[in-house]
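Posting for a labmate who doesn't have an account.
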Amino acid sequence: MSSLSDQRLAALRERMAATGTDLVAIGPSSHMIYLAGLDPHGDERPVMLLVAPGHAGFLMPALNVDSARQKTDLPFFPWRDDDGPDAALADLLKASDLPANPSVVIDETMRADFALLLLDALPGASRRFTDDTVGFLRARKDDAEYRLLKASAVLNDKAAQAGFDALKPGITEEEVAAVIRDVYKAAGASPVFTSICFAGNGAFPHHHTGQTQLKAGDAVLIDIGGRLDGYPSDMTRVGYFGAPSEEFEKVYAVVESAVQAALAAAKPGVTAKMIDKAARDVITEAGYGDCFPHRTGHGLGIDIHEPPYMTATSETVLDEGMVFSIEPGIYLPGKFGLRLEEIVILRADGAEILSEMPRDAVIR
């Protein structure tokens, strides 16, 4: 097992002690990647990592044991298709040495049948999800994670710039997306999403890139992300093909002001809802409140969307090391949509932006 896995399991056990947790059960998910560096094949065969104060081990289908052994030296409790998982799970629970009626944390991304298999084997257990254990740890990035996220963001800058540089009359959204994907692949990264929006398509916050052709007078929105060395990027920039309209320039100024307001509000000790409020107040005061239909941001780590979430109702208290997006937008149906997105890491004195690409509208 890597020293990183050792450190993270030790940190998890500290959180378990602080939260009165007897067992953490993790399915084949990003939580398992974070804790053990293992991403086993996930299908209908139950697989899970169980972490107790004095023991950690895997319930593992026998046909996956040899492959998984290359990534971890934690003990396996294997089971075969012709036997089923019940006996192996019972052995793993016995080794976990749990008290009666244990307090169990369940991976919220685990398959329901996996979770029920475990809970049925622990009658009387109380259960909750990972927010105050694994989720708590994952929300606070260490220096190694910061470096990986920063490198991914800088590559994303290059990909976005290539997308804007490719703009020409008649090019399709999909052709621009292909240029961007090639930048990721050339750097050894994998594309995760490429949302290229011309003209009125930008008014759909989650537009699916298609065959719309670029023409003079079109606004352009590029929201893209790739994955480099296991960590993703996510950024949105806007531009205009031709001389920008007065309306575009007006809306751009409002959204840029909203980003700046949210950045200024982002400090340790502030609740996440205050970040959303800072951005939303600017847009509402400018008369576009009904045109901003989504949250201001989401956390970013191993997953592109993970806690914390910058919503109007989130009471999450922000802490140093948290990484999240700030991405207010204004969407005008039939005209254009304008969203500006930064990924930031929270430092003691405020938000550090990971991207190095200016937010200025790109005019082509």
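Reply:
Got it, the structure tokens are right above this. Residues 143-165 form the longest helix (23 residues).
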